[in-house]
Amino acid sequence: MDDGRTCPACGSGLQPAGHPPGDRAVCPRCGRCWEAGGDGAVVDPLACPGCERRGTCESCPTWLVEERSRREVLADGQQVLIRPLLYGDRFELAAGFSDLSPRSRRHRFFAAPDELDPDELEYLTNLDYRDHFACAAVLEDGPVPKGVGVGRYLREEDDPTVAEVAVTVMDAYQRRGIGTLLTRMLGEVAVENGIRTFVSYVQWENAAAVELLAEEGSRVTPAEPGVARIEVRLPARVTEVPDSYLHRLIKAYVARVRAFGRRDGGDGSARDGGDGSARDGSSGGGSSGDGSRAGQVTPSERSSDRGRPRRTTRT
Amino acid sequence: MTTLHARPTQQSATGPEMAPLPASAHLLDPVIRWAEREPGRAVAAYREGDAFVDVTAEDFYGRVRALAKGLIASGVEPGDRVGLMSHSRLEWLVVDYAILAVGGVTVPVYETSSPDQVQWILSDSGAVLALVETPAMRAIYDEVHASATACREAFVIDEGGLDELMARGGAVDDVVLDERIAGLGADQLATIVYTSGTTGRPKGCMQTHRNLRTNVAQNLDAVQSMLGDDEVCLLFLPLAHTLTKLIALVCVEWGAKLAFATDLPHLQEELPLAQPTLIVAVPRVFEKVFNAAQHKANAEGHGKIFDKAEDVAIRWSKAKVAGQRRPIVGVEHAAFDRLVYGKLQAAFGGRLRFAFSGGGPLGERLTHFFHAIGVKIFEGYGLTETSPTLTLNRADAWKPGTVGRPLAGTSIRIADDGEILASGPQVFSGYWNAEAATAETFESEGWFRTGDIGEIDDEDYLRITGRKKELIVTAAGKNVAPAPLEDQLRAHPLISQAIVVGDQRPFVAAMIAVDEEALDEWATDHGLDDVDRAELLGHEQLRAELQSAVDHANRSVSKAESIREFAILPRDLTIESGELTPTLKVRRAVVAKAYDSVVEDLYG
């Protein structure tokens, strides 16, 4: 696929998509498909970028997107979609990484180059969703869905009950609760996959991330100069959440996304395939948590779940 | 913040009580006291020809006064800052006391500082006058003078600058100076010492007469029982470093003779000449002495004897510290004393009894070893911000492997996240011209945040276990922030990744990964297309190119903080090797270790 081609709709450079890449080119900005027979239609946000199937493909993460996608509302009223990261997100991930401030890049990688190289990008987006799981935070209220954060865990080789966690939120969106939401999803998925302990390495200077990850009962120890090692025990299993009402809401939401299919349809909030389309990916590396506890409460929780523990995982 | 540590309780320790210093006390007090009480006492010495020449208390104070009058004649008013850039020598101390005598504030500048740093320190402190040691330093001063606006003049010590000042002061009445001295008080600012943080410009730590004089008393309280009337201290570290300066002040207070070593290369020669009873050193010095002795023993075929001697030394010291009687070890110790230990003692001049160590951690074994050869090393802990000592192994409470108990009047607390917090009369009041940084460095209840992580054991000894700041501390005790250096290196198109290492090592080195694409282009541009990659990475021209990037980055730091050597990484960092975590975070310590062979080569 020619990398040099531009999107006739918005002028952005087209990017190859799919897994393996090469049979489609999509515009990372407006999410349209132009190559290999594509007529500029918006790509189905929930279709597997590899096989184009959707919904129940067991070899693809699409089913996970449906099962896991979750709309949340931050304390400041901002709606945000938290969904698994997809392979097709890698271009936006790369772009997001470059957009991060040097400080945030440093917080994420401790000594970070200006951009991710293709190997790193491949490593960070070629997920198996069990041993390596990542999720993205996506804002859908702009003309193009915008990835603003990414969280991931990787199971450790020596001890399969332990995984390392890294969470990054774009600079302008830090300290609003997005990191908390990402971390929560990581915790839920990790528990289901038999992970009992999250470990993360965070620069002390990155106070927001230390605050986000170091909760009651966590163990914080000094690693090398400037770096804290934070160990958090996860609960043995996920119980309360998603509670029935929330679950129903997600189901309804997924159904709605399904319904609007390739053309626009859906309601205002999900136009243009905004619900976590493969292209709105997630933004990249950087760092830093956003430690505030904003955004934990979805409208559903607010209305119906008083008195129940809001959080199942302690991450 | 939520509870970070699974600590059962909050830990803290407090030193013995201490009466506050009277408000009229100041740093000139001991200088004047010795000059009046024992004018003939040798308080300092400097190398001349083949011997050290003594300076009496009367002479020393006389020089201070003459120079102080020169400063008054040059318009230095109380509160004015005066820059002092020189290596450690008698004149350093004379100038410092002269500045203090007129109510001024000494702003020390490391002799190895880069022009950028000199410019920043002089302009930020608003120094009105500068005293520099050499014509080369004068050249740096001239280069940056335009931007150090408050600075009116500079004097070169090596070119008779002090004589010139003293001559100027000839017309100043002694009464004028006496009035200035009488006006001194404990809470006046004595010095502003610039320290580099992890980011941004160096910050000026404001130390008052009280901070320093109190810390002198606190240190003396801890070691006094070991001090006699004929102590000699050989100084060879920069007085711009607060620990060296403080030990010099301790010597002046106690009346110990301060001998100034010519420079480091002459140290070996001058130790027997000066025959010090105490020194202040960084761990590297002790390591070097030990390694040299071991090396020599091996070379002479006595390696086994040396190893045995080392083993006995450590067992002897441990038994002694624990208060155990181990007659056999005692006999062995006595035997090796003649064979091995005595020679090491002789290398130090033959009279050395104790040493202060700071700037970095000293190995526990080394401490025990030197104890057995008759040199008790007092390892302590503190920062420039704490003038500097907070905790110290005392003569009567000495635990190798720890940095001792809190000094008199000092409290240490471990915060929830493990950070060491401190309070005491030696803790500074803040950074010069930097209110935000000052506010950040004190927590809500007024405790000073050290940025280090530690534990207090059940006997109140502090142990340092980590560092919150991303700082490299070299074996020479220099703090270097890796991030700004790495950022500058990475700005070079050929460099894709740079990792600066050097923690507890003799100097700072950089591990550089070369950008593949840029390397191809570069090879084409330089007609090196046919050269294979491995050869290319070792190519002279490439090294020269990278050296220029290193030189560029070094411009912002002093020689002691600069990247002395660099190595080109033969491959990318990997997760398998542990250099990267699974989420691709760089583990600097592992990288440093993995390349230690390269680095050790560099370190020679």
How does this structure look, described?
The complex is a heterodimer of chains A (315) and B (604). By secondary structure, chain A is an alpha+beta fold. Chain A folds into 2 domains: 1-41, no CATH class; 54-300, Aminopeptidase (3-Layer(aba) Sandwich), CATH 3.40.630. Chain A contains 8 helices and 10 strands. The termini of chain A are far apart. In chain B, α3 links the parallel β4 (81-85) and β5 (105-109). Chain B contains 21 helices and 25 strands. The model of chain B is unreliable at 1-10 (pLDDT under 50). Chain B folds into 3 domains: 29-184 and 231-276, ANL, N-terminal domain (Rossmann fold, 3-Layer(aba) Sandwich), CATH 3.40.50.12780; 280-467, 3-Layer(aba) Sandwich (Rossmann fold), CATH 3.40.50; 472-603, GMP Synthetase, Chain A, domain 3 (2-Layer Sandwich), CATH 3.30.300.30. Chain B is an alpha/beta fold and 604 residues long. The longest helix of chain B is centred in the middle third of the chain and has 21 residues, at 327-347. In chain B, the strands form 6 sheets. Chain B has a 9-stranded mixed sheet with strand order 3-2-11-10-12-13-14-15-16, sandwiched between helices. Chain B has a 5-stranded antiparallel sheet with strand order 1-17-18-19-20, with no helix packed on it. Chain B is globular and about 80 Å long.
